[in-house]
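Session log. Operator J.P. requested a structure for one protein chain; no other inputs attached. Running the standard single-chain path with token output.
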Amino acid sequence: MDAGTIQRPGEFRNERERRPTPMNERIWIPYCGAAPDPGGLIGRWNLDPGLLCLFVAISAIAFVRTAGRPRERALFFAATAVTLLLFVSPFCALTSALFAARSAHHVLLTALAAPLIAAAMPRSALNAIRGGPASWTAVSALILWLWHAPSLYGEALSSNAVYWLMQASLLGSAIAFWATVRASSSVAAVAALLAYMVQMGLLGSLLTFSDEAFYAPHALTTTAWGFSPLEDQQLAGLLMWVPGALAYLCAALARLHRLLEDEVRPNGLPA
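Structure written below.
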């Protein structure tokens, strides 16, 4: 594919890609298109009309609903900028080539876009979420682990419907997690954030220290980027283990600081 060519998500480049192949010769065509090489990445913007219309519609609704609340509006549009980076920019195509990019995608989606959206939600929306931080910690963590199972991950990179199920479940459960953390007491919030940090670090460490590459869709796509499939997977694990887990640690420390401030009297003396 030429550097300036924009491939529509899920589009087959030739008839050979339409024919079924054995699993060991399977050609993966994920939503973001076939894996690019470094020279062709810059032209791989995802201009899926349906996705762009969805962004416009959601942004218009949010603009109206946040009238008179500049802080919430700014938070929501910051989250929109993150999701545009993930799904519209050439970063989307990079996730087809590198599992490390996919890992960064998941971290940015769940640990940056989701808390920004949760922070922009009105109190009435927070109260509408059933369950507390403990239950949503478990649900969000389970969804994260399930989508990192090689078989489910492979399905997500061979079906647009499964791909969007993966994205929606990751983002939706993460928003619910961060929203319940925001609405809960500092003690419950810190416990939930630290628990999520631990499981994120555990998943990252398993990927980092494995001596086997698990993800078939990236078996033939990493060499052009200077990585073996195993090195790509190990880098993905490090991204989850260090910056991914660090996001939850920083949030926990911020809530702990708030808790300690609550223990201080207005005159500055300990309670």
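Operator note: The chain is about 65% helix and 0% strand.
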